[in-house]
Each structure stands twice: as C-alpha cells, then as structure tokens.
Amino acid sequence: MADQPKQVGGGRRTIGDIAPKLAELTDDVLFEDVWNRTELAARDRSLITVAVLTAGGDADQLRFHLGRARENGVTETELIEAITHLAFYAGWPKAMTAMTVAKQVFAGRVSREEQ
Length: 115
What we know:
Helix content is 69%, strand content 0%. It has helices at 11-15, 20-35, 42-56, 59-71, 76-90, 92-106. The longest helix is centred in the N-terminal third of the chain and has 16 residues, at 20-35.
C-alpha cells in the first residue's frame, strides 16, 4: 500500500479565505496524515468515506469523495453497488440522494470547483 498515490486535500483552496484553521486541519491532518496512512489503501478509505457520507446524508461532501473514490480505483459500478447496499442499512432516502449525486458526478455535471 505504500506505493499508492499521495492524497492531497483542497481545504486551503476552497475555504482557506474564510476558515483558515479548518482548512489547515483538513489539509494537514485529515489528508496529509490520516488519508496517507499505510494501514489502509486509499481505495478502501474512499469506499468507507462514501459509505459514511451516504449514511449521514452529506451530499455536498459526497460529490467530492465520489470523484476521489474513482481517482483511487473504485469503479462507478462498485460505487453504485455500495450505495444500493446502503439503502437497507442507512435508509432509502439517503441512498436515493446519494445515487442522484452519483449520477450527476458520473455524468460530469459537477465541476471540480463545486466538489
């Protein structure tokens, strides 16, 4: 797992002007440290993150992490299957919201800036 691509956050780019401390924590702790730990592959971290965001109904963050998951080697088919599976554990409305977000992301209707 040590040969996986380095995960980099975008906190400073997206919110650094209004919330510099949160941006710093996002980039330096969450991504630089946690996302780059070798005990789990980035692919696995992405699947876990998509599952938690789906279960929590966090559509805005899900947009970014669906794209990140694809970059980390999770296929669209696997993401759709994970969201479908979560419908029974996280709730139907949350899975439907997540699937709508996934459809938009996969169709390219969400720009990187919106993510």
